[in-house]
Structures are given as structure tokens and as C-alpha cells.
Amino acid sequence: MTFYAPAEPAASRQASEWEADRPGDAALMRKLAAVPHAIRLNEPEVRAKVENTITAAEQAGGVPVFLINYMPGSDCQQVGAAGMAAYQEWLKGIAGQIGQAKAVVILEPASLVKLPGTKDCDLEGSPAQRYQDLRQAVQTLKGNPATAVYLDGSQDLWPGTAVMAERLIGAGIDRADGFFVNTAGYQRTQKAVAYGKALSACIGLQLSTGKKGCPAAATVDPATMPHFVVDTSRNGRGSWAPAKHYADPQTWCNPPGRGVGDRPTTETGEELADAYLWIARAGSSSGRCRRGTDGEKDPERGVVSPEAGLWWGDLALERAKNAVPPLR
Q1: What per-residue confidence (pLDDT) applies to 260?
Q2: Own/partner pairs for 170-173, CB < 8 Å, 24+ apart?
Q3: What's the family (predicted)?
Q4: For residue 326, is it within any domain?
Q5: Is 123 a domain residue?
Q6: Within a domain: 300
Q7: CATH classification at residue 83
Q8: Average pLDDT over residues 53-69
Q9: What is the pLDDT of residues 280-305, one digit of tens each?
């Protein structure tokens, strides 16, 4: 399977700005822009965007990857029934525009990490309601059998394999195509795959036994183990371990010296790993990284970082230069 590479205007614009004086850097930006990456759907009206993407992907002979990140309450605020009903109608519009075309949907990153009713979110909230909302979302999107839908699997140690397995079962992993791991994360592919396999086995065990927990010595029926995909957009150099001491190192926040990772592919060499994908944007800032200091500047970089989600040319170039394997 070949994934669709949508336009990356920010990287292309950056390349044009550097073309005359920095041709080598410009060339790297063009290579970065050419890599297939997820199309983010997080605005009230996205039907035209989805329709145009499906048309362009079919013409290019690739499969688009959509990142849906619009669920009310994802910021751990209370949500009324009307807001969630509107969200489900919004999803129906997306499903209608995808139609019978092939597509991959990454459904609501962090929706099972920042779970209502847990310490990572609103303790007064309801996990059961979040599970129901996700199950309904999966059902809507899977109305087209050619749409592959993956649920939030977080990453190793957050919140823990057995707990994550319980949450995925609650959210209807048996109705989805699998789960995704390492979204916007820096864990190397090998480590992320190992976590994905452990989580898959844990889910299979809990589905088979109806019990919580994941004893290491337990035997798991492979038929009960869900598949997964891995975000490799930022993990080429692995996680960052700061040499300096910070009150809050924020190792996830624009860590220096990182690089883009494996290119998107379905040829993973792992039976349970359906694909490596670029779910996050390689050149987007994580926000203001103060690392526990009082100033506005990132003490590691000596500059004020752009706000979260904004393109940062210098960060993109750093990750392109540090790509593993190199961008070609």
C-alpha cells in the first residue's frame, strides 16, 4: 500500500525562502514536504477538505491518512449531550465524504489517556461516557469497510499496559482495526513496536479471560490480538535525555537533536504492526518550553518557541538533518 502525500505548504514555502542562499537546506525541506503525512481534521467544517483529499489521493494512487482531533471534552472540560451529538453528526459528514474509498483514520489522540474520571483528566467525569462516544464514532466511520480506524494506544508507561488494555476494550477495540502508539512521541520504532505487541497481547488476554491485569507467563490466542500502527514522524533519534538538570525538563517539548524516523510504509516486518505513519507534523512546535524556568525562552535553545501547532522552520530543518534513515 502506498500512502498519499498531501501538500505541505509550510515546508514548501520554507524551501522557497531558502532556495537562493541555502540551497542544501531548501532541498531538505522539499524532501520533508514530499513524505506522506496525516491530514488533520479539527475544524467545524471539514467536508470539503475530506472530499478534495479523497479525490486527490485517488488521482495520485495513494491512501490518505486522516487525523481526527475534535472530540468535545478532550481538554478535560465537562461536555453536554448537545455538544457530543453535534460531534457525532460531524463524524457522519466525514464518513459520507470518504464514501467507499480506502482511508486510514487516527481517531482522537489522547482520548484514552486523558480519560474523564481518572487522575490525568477530570476526576468527576465519566469513563463510561467516553467509551460510549468512541464506540459510536468507530461504528460511524466503519460504515465503510474500506476505512481503517485506529484508537488511542498512547505509549509505553503512560498510563501502563494493563490499564491501557482495559481502556481500549472499553472503547470497543474489537470493532476497530486496531490502535496507534507513539503519537507525536520520540520512542524509537523498535521500542514502540515492542510496546504495541505487549499491549496487543494484554488486550487479547483480557478479552479471552474477562479479567484485568496481564500476567507475563500467560498464553494468548493470536486471533484475539489487535493490530496497531506506529507514529514515526519524530522518533529517528529516540527520546531526549537532557544533560542539564531542570525542575521540569519537558522532554516531550521541542527536544533538541531529534530527527524524523522511518518513512510511512506497510512493510514493517511485524505481523501485528500494520504500518509506520507520520501522524504528527515533523515541523510543528510543541509550544513554549520553559522547562521549569521563569523566563520565556527555552533554556536549551535560547529562543522563545512558537506556540503549539505552529510551523517552526528551524525545528523542521533540525529534524530533517537528523533523519534516521536519511531523507532521500
Answers
A1: 99
A2: 170/127, 170/128, 170/131, 171/111, 171/112, 171/130, 171/131, 171/134, 171/135, 171/138, 172/131, 172/134, 172/135, 172/138, 172/139, 173/203, 173/226
A3: Belongs to the glycosyl hydrolase family 6.
A4: no
A5: yes
A6: no
A7: 3.20.20.40
A8: 98
A9: 999 999 999 999 999 999 999 999 99
